Automatic annotation (TrEMBL), chains A, B:
It comes from Candidatus Burkholderia pumila. One of its GO terms (molecular function) is (2E,6E)-farnesyl diphosphate synthase activity. It holds the Pfam family polyprenyl_synt. This is Geranylgeranyl pyrophosphate synthetase. Its EC number is 2.5.1.10.
Amino acid sequence: MTFEQWMRGTLDRVETALEHYLPGTNVAPARLHEAMRYAVLGGGKRVRPLLCHAAGELTNTGASAVEAASCALEMMHVYSLVHDDMPCMDDDALRRGKPTVHIQYDDATALLVGDALQSQAFVALTADGNGLKDAQQAALTRELALASGSVGMAGGQAIDLESVGRKLSRPELETMHRNKTGALLRAAVRMGALAGDKPSADNLAALDQYAAAVGLAFQVVDDILDVTADSARLGKTAGKDAQNDKPTYVSIIGLEASRELAVQLGRDAHAALAPFGARGQRLAELADLIVNQVN
Amino acid sequence: MTFEQWMRGTLDRVETALEHYLPGTNVAPARLHEAMRYAVLGGGKRVRPLLCHAAGELTNTGASAVEAASCALEMMHVYSLVHDDMPCMDDDALRRGKPTVHIQYDDATALLVGDALQSQAFVALTADGNGLKDAQQAALTRELALASGSVGMAGGQAIDLESVGRKLSRPELETMHRNKTGALLRAAVRMGALAGDKPSADNLAALDQYAAAVGLAFQVVDDILDVTADSARLGKTAGKDAQNDKPTYVSIIGLEASRELAVQLGRDAHAALAPFGARGQRLAELADLIVNQVN
């Protein structure tokens, strides 16, 4: 199977699983469920589900187990986007090429959509018959909760807020991103592996190294695209970072050095996968996909 | 042990456990952790932790297991208060006798405090060494996630928003409250029982009946107090329901009928506890405590 075929098949399965794990609009409260589906379905690159599926290839995961984990990750990610776009945060009107939830609905609905998507992520992880054993449900909940909370994604968002208009050093910038986006990307990789045969501590450590490189590359690429791509390509408002005076890799080390850094991080990601041999192929290809966006 | 002694001892343990399960202000991001602690510690009646502990008496729960469950419930409850108080929701300035989080800090911080408290609830439920077995961690996560999400608390909030200024029937009002507050109170009772020896389906059904009566009584009492008590006693702004033109039991069936309903629901709660004999004592006493606030 080529990478493109694997991607297409995986994305189809993820979309079907998201459909399944999101309450239908025939379930009350209908408007809230409609807004949750508006936020999650029909858009997004599904980077976390792809990483989760790719890591799942290392440990013989069952299809439904890795799908439940993927859906939980994507719901968690989308909740963070919905809340980040709200007026009291980044105040953004465009996301994944569509009006943001608070624009399409209203602020209160956007707040509740995010809140309910976070809960729904844990519903998916612990749903009866989702293919995950009790111990896996508990372990994946632990991974996802830590990655999403105050020492992960939400914490990174808090650091981000405090950094607006302030000059960050490069280590400070990395700390922020390690929390804000890195923690959930790392969780995606770990959860994929943990959804199958129990991985060794060494293998989890190797995956952490891979995820650290990919997570940072992801952010560097995002910073580059914010200045080089237009809103139509991004599906969100371009140039927001400079406009909001947010520190980025481009503002701190410049565009060319940022490009070189992304390439180096891609190499680091490949190196971390050495213990897995051919089984690490999809993870390696995903690292390339992320880095190659800016080359 | 008298009920008062049991209450005092339980509340002390809950407070200590919350201290333990909330990240310290020495952990980055310090300001977010300070705000989370501001929201959770030093206030609140801790109704859900008390119900959880009382139900735990039925199934020989270990102390740390029921404490972890109680903390998760209280964090989930407090996150909902923090978000509900925000300007785009109820826009309230006073909670538990203190300025609300968005007043004390800012809107963005209040948003993140709520988001991170929800995650932290699941961290507590799945923390290593919290006294809950894998299967219990998974089961309690399932209970809490369903009770908090779009078919529970967040869903009830969405129905509440849509009902402002609209005339609700009594069944509609009950549906709203069964989601908005009832679901989490029910989860408190069930999680307490599930944190110990596996309860029978019959016993869980009896607990559901108890929780349904107590949950409704809780809301009826809240509606009565909103018109009969002052802000100092409530620790939150009194008279808000009428001011916001929100449907309440008092507005639909009147004050006297509301008082009678609360008393009847207290009797229903007692009746549901029959299968448990003397072990149901604390749950019975808690039902009385809730109902007696208005008598």
